[in-house]
Design a protein that fits this description.
single chain; alpha+beta; Alpha-Beta Plaits; 5 strands; elongated
Length: about 140
């Protein structure tokens, strides 16, 4: 089975960058979506890339189970505390199985698992949104 890691990460990033609802929350700036956060990146921003991929194949299908975390950081002062919650809700809606197109794979299941809203030691607001996906290798075109 092909490893879905790169294709999944690419799809996740493209989906978030292409979300008009997410862009509206960053307006007038562009949505900041990172795999590696630059030093001194301005808040708010989103970080993707914390994934666990498990083999989920059987004799009929080549598949993987993906557990993915998306992180959101915002400033601690109002109204940005609520902005983090709004961003988490938009991300939850954007990363459904229907919206996520993973090249070379069919997304069989994409489900939101949970969201945690935390305060980091530096005072910034931090949301962690967890998802679970089942993907199967797409059949090759004849």
């Amino acid at each position: 089975m092909a490893d879905p890691a790169v294709a999944f990460h690419t799809a996740q990033e493209a989906t978030l960058r292409g979300s008009a609802a997410l862009a509206a929350l960053f307006a007038p700036a562009l949505a900041r979506v990172y795999s590696v956060v630059p030093q001194n990146a301005p808040l708010p921003f989103i970080r993707i890339g914390d994934d666990q991929i498990l083999e989920d194949s059987d004799e009929c299908v080549s598949g993987s189970e993906i557990f993915a975390l998306v992180h959101v950081w915002t400033r601690p002062d109002p109204p940005d505390v609520q902005l983090g919650r709004q961003m988490a809700g938009v991300i939850r809606a954007a990363l459904t199985a229907d919206a996520l197109q993973v090249a070379g794979f069919d997304v069989v299941l994409g489900e939101f698992q949970d969201a945690r809203h935390l305060t980091d030691p530096d005072g910034s607001s931090h949301a962690v949104i967890a998802f679970r996906y089942l993907v199967t290798q797409a059949p090759e075109a004849p």
